[in-house]
Amino acid sequence: MRSIVIFYLCYLLCLCLSVACVVCVCVWNSRWRGGFAWDGSALQFNWHPVLMVTGLVVLYGNAAVLYRIPLTWGHNKLPWKLLHAAVMLLALILSIVGLCAVFDFHNAKSTPNLYSLHSWIGIAATALFAMQWVVGMGGFLLPCSPMYLRKLLKPVHVWMGIGILLLSIAACISGINEKLFFVLKGNSGGVQPYSALPPEALLGNSLGVLIFAFGLVVLKILSNYEWQRPDSRPEDMAYTPVLQEENE
Amino acid sequence: MRSIVIFYLCYLLCLCLSVACVVCVCVWNSRWRGGFAWDGSALQFNWHPVLMVTGLVVLYGNAAVLYRIPLTWGHNKLPWKLLHAAVMLLALILSIVGLCAVFDFHNAKSTPNLYSLHSWIGIAATALFAMQWVVGMGGFLLPCSPMYLRKLLKPVHVWMGIGILLLSIAACISGINEKLFFVLKGNSGGVQPYSALPPEALLGNSLGVLIFAFGLVVLKILSNYEWQRPDSRPEDMAYTPVLQEENE
């Protein structure tokens, strides 16, 4: 009972941090960066942080912890698997549109793509996410996928899922840091430099801290053994003969 | 048996990545950034990445996985606790000297300290690490520390330890990204811009990828239930009455 109360406190924190991250990235880009457009200008770039934080971090993290909600444990797993796949698909689509925004912006300015460490980490996160979604769809949702394949795939799927979350958080932290250095140079009229910590810098830094805190809470929820859906716990996976059917 | 073979493969990978990270950051700063000094110049700054990667990431990660080595399980835990504390202390000292290098460099140039997101994440990692070391020393090594306190502290110590590792990796990725943008501007004679991916950029980006891979392997080793020292596994922690002594 105590464990379930602590879970719901963590889950509430996860939801509050989700809202805080999305609000913070939207306010930053609408109020301080001039808003949004899809015309190859800096306003198009502004979609990039908003969509990556919303898709690759917030929706992704929320979809990852879905099976941990004790309220879902008494039900058939299939609708929750469909919801997990659907939210992940939405997260993936937002991330891909977020990448298109920055590629288009770079191409319009003839700036090369994919050279910075931030871009390497971010593109790895999105590419692995797309691969993970396709393999997860084929392995866990297609009825023809055999049980032994699901058992083999599951620990890889969970581990890869955590790796993608960590990549996306590292990409966000490095991206926010880079963006604030780019735009807060303090050499154009009225712009205070990043080093003077103007309100925009405080907001951007706080967004980075919120994203990190969100990732830590998601990781905590995912790694607590007692919060795993009972039919997914390691002892069921480890001690069930590989070819025996289980309530997967 | 199979689990132990996989552990040693992971551990070998962890050691190889440790060496690769240290070699990479040393080569980058000695060959491409001009080497080292302690005179307030850019050569003093070069100690910062070398000491942070070596201390806060590589030594820290290696000290964290020490108890997971099956070879140590048959022995008394105390010498391994002392080794864990000693390597962590060395990691902490290197990190603090690494911070002094950058503070001195900033002060000599009258650049403000601790304004960027990178610095917020990095200072949080080092401050929490120092706190974690002091609390760990008092809680787990002082003979007067009562058993119920050790039991209370242990999950917090493990969880905080993972959080610090994630903070330090995020700090490294954002720091390398920032440094490469700063030094590879392409506007001074003979320097190719970051966007042209000159050899230094490839080396710096590769260092970031190696650090991330190292963190992922350490996290994998820490999170595998079968690789926990038998007297530290959760069932022992959970089912032993709080005041009953155990082979801690």
TrEMBL record, chains A, B:
Gene3D superfamilies in UniProt: 1.20.120.1770
SMART domains (alphabetical): B561
Subcellular compartments: Late endosome membrane; Lysosome membrane
Domain (Cytochrome b561) ranges: 13-223
InterPro entries named in the record: CYB561/CYBRD1-like, Cyt_b561/ferric_Rdtase_TM
Record's keyword terms, sorted: Electron transport, Endosome, Glycoprotein, Heme, Iron, Lysosome, Membrane, Metal-binding, Oxidoreductase, Translocase, Transmembrane, Transmembrane helix, Transport
Transmembrane segments: 7-30, 50-70, 82-105, 117-144, 156-176, 202-223
Primary subcellular site in the record, as a coarse category: membrane
Lipid bilayer topology: Multi-pass membrane protein
Catalytic activity: Fe(3+)(out) + L-ascorbate(in) = monodehydro-L-ascorbate radical(in) + Fe(2+)(out) + H(+)
Any one Gene Ontology cellular component term annotated for this protein: late endosome membrane
Cofactor: heme b
A family per Pfam: Cytochrom_B561
Enzyme Commission no: 7.2.1.3
Iron keyword on record: yes
KW Transmembrane (keyword) present: yes
Molecular function per GO: metal ion binding; transmembrane ascorbate ferrireductase activity
SUBUNIT field: Homodimer.
Function, in words: Transmembrane reductase that uses ascorbate as an electron donor in the cytoplasm and transfers electrons across membranes to reduce iron cations Fe(3+) into Fe(2+) in the lumen of the late endosome and lysosome. Reduced iron can then be extruded from the late endosome and lysosome to the cytoplasm by divalent metal-specific transporters. It is therefore most probably involved in endosomal and lysosomal cellular iron homeostasis.
Record's protein name: Lysosomal membrane ascorbate-dependent ferrireductase CYB561A3
